[in-house]
Amino acid sequence: MKGISECVSKLIRPSGKRRSDETSLPCRRFSLAEIKTATNNFDDNLFIGEWNYRKVYKGFIDDPTISVAIKCVNTKTMPGSDWLRNEILLLCQLHHPNLLRLIGYCIEDKLQEFLVYEFMVNGNLGNHLYGTNHHEPLPWKQRLKICIGVARGLHYLHTGVKHTIIHRNVKMQKILLGEKLEPKLADFGLSKKGPPSLSKALIRLESRVVGTLAYLDPEYCMSGELTDKSDVYSFGAVLLEVLCARKAYGKKSEAEEPIHLIRWAQSCKREGAINEIIDPYLMGKITPECFKVYIDIATTCVRRGAKHRPNMGEVQAGLEHALEIQESADAAIKDVDPTGDYNYPIDEYICNDSPDDTSSMEMGWNSFREESFESTEELSLDNAVPSGQI
Asked: Do residues 92 and 99 lie in contact, with contact meaning Cβ atoms separated by under 8 Å?
């Protein structure tokens, strides 16, 4: 752990309470004693869940009214120094309202390392879409606002810092929601620092491809060449999940066959049956004009060829436009009938197919056949136990 400490020594401050002259310092180093105090010596009542050999506890640092999430990495069962170093070095320097804030870390224990984050009380986005934990279905405009927030965070990573940061593992479980359902993108352990933001150069990876298969950019998966458009592809899968309230790969009930969501959406679009993928709860609640803009964004994001996908700035602008359309249409209905419900014509939920949309099932990507997903909802290179938190 000495290497990690040396790498971030210029970015952290020592343990102890915050002093007035330390408010501008980005990251804090905690002692093991502080971590134990924060979690009441790892009290089971404060245990949130376990994710990929990493237990997460709710805790309290300094102020007992302010909650934090403390992630414990067991280095005996999962050596995590590279992951931990990446997470600390990036999050200590990245500052955006739609990125999860790293408060500090602790590396005193030889068997465990700890990261301290802001606490996101509403867990991850998937919990609110898949019918788990008894959450009420999210309204359409709320879903749009969440997607816009994540798009802003990704746009910042790609163009708002000196060197492009590619997340490499964008998916539902990495989108955490705050008290007012404000979204924050989490987990930068697999992220890759790329070329200067204004450069269009590719990153040629020397290591194995990482990520979750149902969200993986097929070009990156097959060539090992990583660009910002790989995040765009993964985010396109998230956009489809948000619209459908279905997992990127899985089934709604035991009676169903597992569905690969991107392939299903592309097939429905080609066949003129795109309205079949919409979450039943949303039927009649999306204005057709908004739907057309949204589905066009989502399906262009998941085109096989990276050069045919939009960049995150274009995705963000498109989603903001979709929200404006929806808000204007809803306001017009309220002007006519303030007590009325939205009931937009579902037969107008249509869109036109474009030639490139079919390409994601062509060429070598066909080598990832249906059996690649056999007997599992999600074939992942970083399998996780859902925890509702980080």
From this structure: no
